[in-house]
Every structure is written in structure tokens, then in C-alpha cells.
Write a structure and sequence with these properties.
The complex is a heterodimer of chains A (290) and B (279). Chain A contains 11 helices and no strands. In chain A, helix 4 packs parallel to helix 7 (159-183), helix 4 packs antiparallel against helix 9 (200-234) and helix 7 crosses helix 9 (200-234). The longest helix of chain A has 40 residues, at 5-44. Chain A is mostly helical. By secondary structure, chain B is α/β, with parallel strands linked by helices. Chain B has a domain at 2-87 and 163-270: 3-Layer(aba) Sandwich (Rossmann fold), CATH 3.40.50. Chain B contains 10 helices and 10 strands. Chain B has a 6-stranded mixed β-sheet with strand order 6-7-8-3-9-10, with helices on both faces. A 4-stranded antiparallel β-sheet of chain B has the order 2-1-4-5, covered by helices on one side. In chain B, helix 5 packs across helix 6 (147-160) and helix 6 packs parallel to helix 7. The longest helix of chain B is centred in the middle third of the chain and has 18 residues, at 177-194. Chain B starts with a strand and ends in a 9-residue tail after the last helix. Classes of the chains: A mainly alpha (290), B alpha/beta (279). At the A-B interface, helix 8 and helix 9 of A face helix 2, helix 4 and helix 6 of B.
Chain lengths: 290, 279
């Protein structure tokens, strides 16, 4: 039998008030912790508002120096002068794109192989899951530029070191992303294949992949944009591509070269972004229509 | 013959299945009834080892099923097919591929992974789909089908395994009455015409009566009834379904899946509490 309505309501109100009190206390505690941490962080990183204000104009100063002199009446000549190295830079940019693409292919392949034993629901036993998750973490948490430095020393200056560094990082990042997609799947489908006598590989092939492949594809396309940026950055330590040239221009104060190269990199990334976005939307659209 | 002896499953402090023993002769159609949480699903899932028993023996023609591992276990699952309440098809794959899942353990993994099946196997799949009247949808994706159609595809998947036992875990609980009757008719045909043992969890008493040779009633993990459907009288049903100390009456027509001639509502059960029959 249900208890008296007024009693039930009173009991609920009491419980509700207790819950609210606890939530408010938690909010207060977390806010306090947040304030303390940001203070400590500002202290350690030497963040001071007056220095920020004093330094801001100097950013403009540097950017100002990189802007070339372009007059309307001598426009073609000025542009040609500014972009005197256009074809060389285009070649280097192409190198960077190739580094990013190769690292994406090998990295997502590695991540694909890694992600199934790194998924809690697919690994079968906790030790396997733990080991593969940590492997992915190590590959991902060390910055690309550190790997690049090591490989430049080991394999010499050039694109190969950049490719290796990016590949390792991509394996880790993709391994984790893919694994997380794996962990969010509908387990009933796995049971269906398992109950039909399918083994682990067959369960992956027929029950997991149909569920996660659309996710895998979007993650991979998204990663391409990231890899191009990273490929430009690892060039700074001698790992080939346009980054190496950009670093050269910055350290030798070839101001106008800096702006010319940066603009080319930005334009390239924007184009790739647009292409990837189109591809992604087409894929997602196709999936949601079905 | 399938023999279950002292089968027990505990989840933490909860005993889902408590020392259950019974034998199922080959070719029987056995219905298991009981409230939600009585342990019906856990019992069924232990038989094909989707759930690991905590204790007890499962014996099939002298084989210790509870001890099987690796390939031997997968071959047992092939022999002991299962259909589910939620069908457990892969919605993004077409019907044909879903049915061919039942052939995975008949061929090397490498062939399976490349989705290679022989023309004979495809033919078997199509013939089986014809039997459950689903040939019109062979190349459609499974998620485009209705619940009843999906369950029939799931039955086809189970049949191409060429099993000796078919476990059905609440096969009609998610279906409308007409689809439910169709699915139950197919299960009966599988039992009568192919001689396959069918063990079926049901939550509708009249379905169990209409289709099963024998009924097992479970309550809080224990078997408290195991006999011919005729013996299942009002008193026994109360024992299986009604909570201790409750005055609630059971009306087995409330859970009815039959369509024509809806029987009169038992007036005793329309008054009083709300927790009558769990569905």
C-alpha cells in the first residue's frame, strides 16, 4: 500500500533539501579549489597583467616587421619579390603534407590494431587492457617534438624523423580515440555473434566494426588537420618540411619570409580543413539517412 | 539429453539461480516461466555459457558443457543456438550477412573476416529465410525491419547453425501479438518438424500453455514447478507469480498474446493493488 501522500511528499522534500545542500557545498568546495589552483598557476607561470599589457604592442611590432611593402602601382613586382621562394616553399609544403599523410596512414593503422585490446569491453582480461591502454598513453603523452628531437639525432635531419615522430603520436592518439568508440557500442550485437559461435576476431569484424567504422573515419579525417599542423611544427627541430624553413626564417630574422611561409601554411590548412569537413559531413549525412 | 545439476549463479550477494536441476529429453519443447528477476535469463545464458555458472554441472550427451573452453565452447554454442528478446542482430549489416553469422564456426576465421561464404552457404541462408518468410528482405539492412521481422531473421541465423538445441530468451516479449504468434508458430515447427529441443523463457502463461510440452516455473532463482502444462493450476500460478503476503490475484489473460476472442476480464483482479504480473 502507498503511504499517506502528505507523508510521502514531506519525506521527498526532506530528501530533496538534503541533496541540494550537498550539491551547493560541493560547488563551493570546487570553486575554492579552482581559485587556489589558478592563483598558484599564475604564480608559477609568472603571469602578470602589467607585463601582458606592456608586451602586447611588441607582438604588433613583430608582425608589422613581417608585412612586406606592397604598392598598388608595383603590385605584381612586389608580390613576386615577397614570394621569391614560392616554388621552393611549395615543394617543402608538399613534403610537410606527405609527412602528415604518411603518419596518418601508418598511425591510424597502428591505432586500429592497438584499439581492440585497449578497450575494456573487448580486451577479455584486465591485464591486457591495462598494458595496451598504457602503451597508447605513452605514445600519445610525449609531445611529437620530443620524439622528433630524438629521431633527428638517431636518423639525421630530414622528413623521415618527422614522419616517425608523428606516426608514434598518431598511433597513441588514434588508439585511445578508437578504443573509446569501442567502449560505447551496443553489447547485444556482440552477444548475437558470440552466441552463433563466432570467435574474438569474428565478433570484432561483424559486431564491432559495423558500429564503430563511421566514428573511426571521422576521427581519422579530423586527425589529418592536426597532423599537418604538427608536421609543420616538428620541422623546427630539423625534421624536414616547411617547418624547418620557417624556423630558419625566424631565427635569421628574414621577416618577410616568415609572413610569406605562415600565410602559405594557413591557406593550406584551411583548404584541407574544408575538404575534411565536406568528407565528414557527407559520411555523417549518409549514416544518419539510413 | 541435456542435464543440469545443481546449477547456481551468484552476482555478489545476490543468488540469481539457486541450485537448479532438471533434465530435458531431446526433442522436447520446454517453457520456463516466472517473474522478472526470477533467474530465467541467467539460467538460459548459462546453458550456452554467455554467463559463467558459479557452481553446478551442465551435461549434454555425456559432455561436460560447463568445462568447455576455446574452440570446443564455440562449437557448443553453434550446437546450442540462441535467440534474444532484443533480437541481437547487427543493424548496419544486411539480412543475408546477419544470417550467415550462423555459419562462422563452420569455416576458417580468415574466410570469415573477408566475408567470404560459399554459394552453398548462401543458398542455405536463403532457403532458411524462405522458411521464416523473410526472403523479400535478403539484401536489406537489418535496422529497416520491424521487430517481428528481425526476430524471424534471428531465428534464421540460429537455424543455419544447424543446432540441436534452440534457446529462446523471451523471444516475443518485444513483439505485438500477431508477430508473437508467428514467432511462436515457427519455434513450434522447428521443434516438431526438425526435432530440435527448444527451451523458451516466456512471461505469458497462456503462450507457455499453448506451445510447450512441459513448463518449469521459477521463483527467486529456484525451480518451484516442473510438470505438464495441465498441472499448472491457479494455485501453482499464484505460487510462481504472487509476492509473499500479497492478496493480489493473477489473471493469466492479462499477459495474453492471443488475438481472437479476447476472454472476459477476471473482475477480481481489476480491483486492488497494482503489482499484479510483472511483464
Amino acid at each position: 500500500m502507498p503511504s499517506q501522500p502528505s507523508v510521502a511528499v514531506a519525506r521527498f522534500e526532506e530528501e530533496f533539501a538534503r541533496l541540494r545542500r550537498r550539491q551547493r557545498l560541493q560547488l563551493l568546495a570546487f570553486s575554492a579549489i579552482f581559485v587556489i589552483i589558478s592563483h598558484a598557476a599564475a604564480d608559477v607561470s609568472n603571469f602578470r597583467l602589467d607585463r601582458l599589457i606592456a608586451g602586447l604592442p611588441r607582438i604588433g611590432e613583430y608582425i608589422g616587421k613581417t608585412i612586406p611593402e606592397i604598392r598598388l602601382d608595383t603590385l605584381p613586382g612586389d608580390i613576386a619579390y615577397w614570394y621569391y621562394g614560392f616554388f621552393k616553399w611549395l615543394g617543402l609544403l608538399f613534403d610537410t603534407l606527405l609527412i602528415a599523410l604518411m603518419a596518418l596512414i601508418f598511425g591510424s593503422l597502428g591505432g586500429f590494431l592497438l584499439c581492440f585490446p585497449a578497450s575494456r569491453n573487448l580486451a577479455g582480461n584486465f591485464a591486457i587492457y591495462f598494458v595496451f591502454r598504457r602503451l597508447a598513453e605513452i605514445a600519445r603523452t610525449v609531445p611529437e617534438i620530443v620524439y622528433a628531437l630524438i629521431f633527428v639525432v638517431a636518423f639525421g635531419i630530414g622528413p623521415f624523423a618527422g614522419f616517425l615522430a608523428l606516426t608514434i603520436h598518431t598511433i597513441g592518439a588514434m588508439g585511445k580515440l578508437y578504443a573509446e568508440a569501442n567502449e560505447n557500442i551496443d553489447e547485444r550485437q556482440l552477444e548475437g555473434v558470440r552466441a552463433a559461435g563466432g570467435n574474438w576476431f569474428e565478433v570484432i569484424r561483424f559486431a564491432v566494426l559495423p558500429q564503430v567504422l563511421p566514428n573511426f573515419t571521422t576521427y581519422t579525417l579530423w586527425r589529418l588537420e592536426l597532423n599537418i599542423r604538427s608536421a609543420a611544427i616538428v620541422g623546427f627541430v630539423g625534421a624536414g618540411g616547411i617547418g624547418q624553413e620557417l624556423y630558419h626564417a625566424i631565427s635569421f630574422n628574414y621577416y618577410e619570409d616568415v609572413s610569406a611561409i605562415v600565410l602559405m601554411v594557413v591557406a593550406t590548412i584551411m583548404v584541407i580543413d574544408l575538404i575534411c569537413e565536406q568528407l565528414r559531413h557527407r559520411l555523417i549525412g549518409k549514416e544518419s539517412l539510413q | 539429453m541435456l542435464k543440469v545439476e545443481g546449477l547456481t549463479k551468484t552476482f555478489g550477494t545476490l543468488t540469481a539461480v539457486d541450485n537448479v536441476s532438471f533434465e530435458v529429453p531431446t526433442g522436447q519443447m520446454l517453457g520456463i516461466i516466472g517473474r522478472s528477476g526470477a533467474g530465467k535469463s541467467t539460467l538460459l545464458r548459462m546453458i550456452n555459457r554467455l554467463t559463467e555458472p558459479t557452481a553446478g554441472r551442465i551435461d549434454y550427451d555425456g559432455r561436460d558443457v560447463a568445462a568447455l573452453k576455446g574452440r570446443a565452447l564455440r562449437l557448443w554454442r553453434r550446437e546450442c543456438a540462441m535467440i534474444f528478446q532484443q533480437f541481437n542482430l547487427v543493424p548496419r549489416l544486411d539480412v543475408l550477412t546477419n544470417v550467415l553469422m550462423g555459419r562462422l564456426s563452420y569455416q576458417p576465421t580468415a574466410r570469415s573476416l573477408l566475408k567470404l561464404f560459399t554459394p552453398e552457404e548462401r543458398a542455405l541462408a536463403v532457403i532458411t529465410l524462405e522458411r521464416v518468410e523473410m526472403t523479400s528482405a535478403v539484401l536489406q539492412r537489418a535496422d529497416q525491419l520491424s521487430g517481428g521481422q528481425q526476430q524471424r531473421v534471428a531465428i534464421a541465423r540460429a537455424l543455419v547453425q544447424e543446432p540441436r538445441i534452440l534457446l529462446a530468451d523471451e523471444p516475443i516479449a518485444s513483439l505485438d501479438p500477431r508477430s508473437a504468434a508467428r514467432v511462436m508458430d515457427i519455434l513450434r515447427s522447428i521443434n516438431r518438424d526438425d526435432g530440435i529441443t527448444v527451451i523458451c523463457n516466456l512471461h505469458t502463461i497462456d503462450t507457455a500453455r499453448a506451445y510447450c510440452d512441459r513448463i518449469i516455473g521459477m521463483r527467486t532463482g529456484r525451480v518451484i514447478f516442473d510438470d505438464h502444462p495441465k498441472v499448472l493450476d491457479h494455485e501453482r500460478i499464484r505460487e510462481i507469480y504472487v509476492a509473499d503476503g500479497s492478496d493480489d490475484e493473477i489473471d493469466e489473460y492479462i499477459t495474453s498474446t492471443t488475438l481472437p476472442g479476447i476472454p472476459p476480464i477476471d473482475l477480481r483482479s481489476t480491483s486492488g493493488g497494482s503489482n499484479r504480473i510483472p511483464t
